[in-house]
Design a protein that fits this description.
Elements lengths: L5 E3 L6 E3 L15 H4 L1 H24 L13 H14 L4 E8 L5 E7 L5 H15 L7 E7 L2 E6 L1
Parallel strand pairs: 4-5
Antiparallel strand pairs: 1-2, 3-4, 5-6
Helix pairs in contact: 3-4
Bound molecules: zinc ion.
Length: 155
Amino acid sequence: MDKNPTKICPQCQSEISALANKCPHCQSDQRSFFKRHPAVSVLLLIAGVGLISSIISTSGSTPVNTTVVTVPISEATINSLRKDLTSFGQGRWQDVVVGQSEYNELIVRAYALPGANTVAINSYCEVLKEEVGKYAIAKANLYIYQFGEVVKACL
Ligand SMILES: [Zn+2]
């Protein structure tokens, strides 16, 4: 068995030492492109590193997702709010419905008494906002109803 590993010269197809830098038959350079061109290799390496780091920094600065993900409002919070708003509704609204949307947004529907005028209804919004503001709720949709219709969305 031959101790020295051999290879085939790509130029002249002769069997030569695998360690040879130069083919003894055709004198062709057997070194790899990178060994023959160290300066070019270094430049390619730097360009490659630069490219990779620019890809990494670009992906890092790209906003992943601007959608605000909120956690569901707890049953305890909903119940507590319903109790508060029912209590605050004495003389203001005849009923109040407290729930949350599929996007975890609070929904409050306060059904104003038939006699409530615009000024009163506007003040109800302030009451709702103040009460809801006591809880850590990401997004709340507050509506005043009267005669079965939304008469004011509290913004
Ligand atoms: Zn050769």
